[in-house]
């Protein structure tokens, strides 16, 4: 039986937006997901394929939005992935599963449905004001017994922009 291991690492990227003054928001990402696939994941025992989809716990990754300049300033979080060793048949999805907590009059919008993370930057969710403990869930699809033996690894890059 082949053993396939998939690792996702999260990194932090700070981005300053220059208008009249420098505005820098911060983001803290806590969490990663390492998945080992074994014979226990076969659909119907020996000779069958493995489950096609694996879902993390609902708060596998936690995000804090910090250092927001003002409650009046909006921010957005964009995501993309940078593959270390990856098979193009594997798709990685991400969804926000809650709002976390925030200062009075802060908001958070979007990201509540799974979206495929690609190598192209895309909007994940947006908001206003500081937020903490925003829970994130990850999901793999496209896994099959036909994947080559070995480990696969990718990094999800989160970019916050305040405007």
What is the element layout, followed by pairings?
Elements lengths: L3 E10 L2 E3 L3 E3 L1 E5 L2 E5 L15 E3 L5 E6 L7 E12 L5 E6 L4 E2 L4 E3 L5 E3 L4 E7 L2 E11 L8 E13 L1
Parallel strand pairs: 1-15
Antiparallel strand pairs: 1-5, 2-3, 4-7, 6-14, 7-14, 8-13, 8-15, 9-12, 9-14, 10-14, 11-13
Could you describe the 3D structure shown?
With 163 residues, this protein is mainly beta. It has one domain. Helices cover 0% and strands 56% of the residues. The chain is built from no helices and 15 strands. The protein has strands at residues 4-13, 16-18, 22-24, 26-30, 33-37, 53-55, 61-66, 74-85, 91-96, 101-102, 107-109, 115-117, 122-128, 131-141, 150-162. Strands 4, 6, 7, 9, 10, 12 and 14 form a seven-stranded antiparallel sheet that branches. A hairpin with a 3-residue loop joins strand 2 (16-18) and strand 3 (22-24). It is elongated and about 60 Å long. The chain starts with a strand and ends with a strand. The relative contact order is 0.34. Mean pLDDT is 84; it is low at 10-23.
């Amino acid at each position: 039986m082949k053993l396939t291991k998939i690792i996702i690492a999260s990194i932090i990227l700070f981005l300053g937006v220059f208008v009249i003054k420098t505005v820098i928001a911060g983001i803290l990402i806590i969490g990663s997901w390492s998945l080992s696939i074994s014979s226990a994941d076969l659909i119907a025992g020996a000779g069958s394929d493995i489950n096609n989809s694996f879902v993390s716990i609902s708060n596998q990754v936690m995000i804090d939005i910090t250092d927001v300049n003002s409650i009046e300033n909006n921010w957005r979080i964009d995501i993309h992935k940078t593959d270390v060793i990856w098979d193009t048949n594997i798709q990685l999805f991400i969804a926000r599963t809650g709002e976390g907590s925030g200062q009075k009059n802060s908001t958070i919008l979007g990201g509540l449905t799974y979206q495929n993370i690609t190598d192209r930057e895309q909007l994940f969710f947006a908001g206003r004001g500081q937020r903490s403990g925003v829970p994130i869930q990850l999901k793999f699809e496209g896994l099959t017994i036909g994947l080559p033996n070995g480990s696969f690894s990718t990094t999800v890059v989160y970019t916050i922009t305040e405007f």
